[in-house]
Amino acid sequence: MTTILDKILLEKKKQIEIMLENDVPLQEHKITRPSLFDQLYGTEHLQIISEIKRASPSKGLIAAGVNPVVLANAYYEAGAVCISVLTDTPFFQGSFQDLAVVSDTVPIALLCKDFILHKVQIDQAINAGASVILLIVAALSEKELQNLYEYATSEGLEVLVEIHDSIELETALKMGAKLIGVNNRDLRSFEVDLSRTTEIASIFPFHEKRVLISESGIRNVEDAAQVARYGASAVLVGESLMKIGDVRATINDLKVKRGVITP
Ligand SMILES: O=C(O)c1ccccc1NCC(=O)[C@H](O)[C@H](O)COP(=O)(O)O
């Protein structure tokens, strides 16, 4: 059966062909944004990676007309540790233009949230001002993952490696990932389950100086508290923040105290 992830990756390959034909060169760059890892490692309180998300395959339109500059400023002033910008257009209605305007607006860590399969996308992310990229274990072979990871870090980026189960955790650990995100959403079935984070947390090597991030499906302070209790350093939140009126109060509420417990 063809899943949504298969469809996204197929479309992404077509976009990569076009990017390669257009040959946009990597610009001279020096990444000066604060390190996401440094801010998350050992944090006492859960930190918030706030996402700009206009639409999604699971929810359709969320906030199509959002102004990314206004929202990025609100996230920054509310104390988000990082802003995640979805740059995929066909499925999320985002763009590298969104990333570039957010980059011009805020000085904090900036995540290019896309389905990266080729280094040309990493070049685009850098050109648009990202300091962090996402690599999804389920979308790449181990060799591709390693090559893209090494290329991104050699260009000064941090890499958030996204996993969904213990086998993918093994892959991420083997390649030396320091920032590891558990996606609570199954990208094939859309099912969201926060116990993905608690299960991974129970086998996560916190003592090895690695950071665990819980991604997707965080709707309220109870959800935040659940993943924080198990040692997550940050949550990546999209839809709930896009729909909420008071971003400042919500981000503040989500910054609950962390603790590492064994389930
Ligand atoms: O959000 C989706 O429907 C989706 C479907 C298929 C692949 C990826 C998808 N989302 C990307 C993300 O990882 C989320 O935008 C991010 O973690 C925030 O999730 P949420 O807070 O649940 O909006």
TrEMBL record:
One GO BP annotation of this record: L-tryptophan biosynthetic process
Residues in Indole-3-glycerol phosphate synthase domain copies: 5-254
Reactions it catalyzes: 1-(2-carboxyphenylamino)-1-deoxy-D-ribulose 5-phosphate + H(+) = (1S,2R)-1-C-(indol-3-yl)glycerol 3-phosphate + CO2 + H2O
Annotated metabolic or biological route of this protein: Amino-acid biosynthesis; L-tryptophan biosynthesis; L-tryptophan from chorismate: step 4/5
Enzyme class: lyase
A GO MF label: phosphoribosylanthranilate isomerase activity
Pfam family, one: IGPS
Keywords of this entry: Amino-acid biosynthesis, Aromatic amino acid biosynthesis, Decarboxylase, Lyase, Tryptophan biosynthesis
The enzyme's E.C. designation: 4.1.1.48
InterPro entries xref list: Aldolase_TIM (IPR013785), Indole-3-glycerol_P_synth (IPR045186), Indole-3-glycerol_P_synth_dom (IPR013798), Indole-3-GlycerolPSynthase_CS (IPR001468), RibuloseP-bd_barrel (IPR011060)
Similarity field: Belongs to the TrpC family.
Protein's name according to its UniProt entry: Indole-3-glycerol phosphate synthase
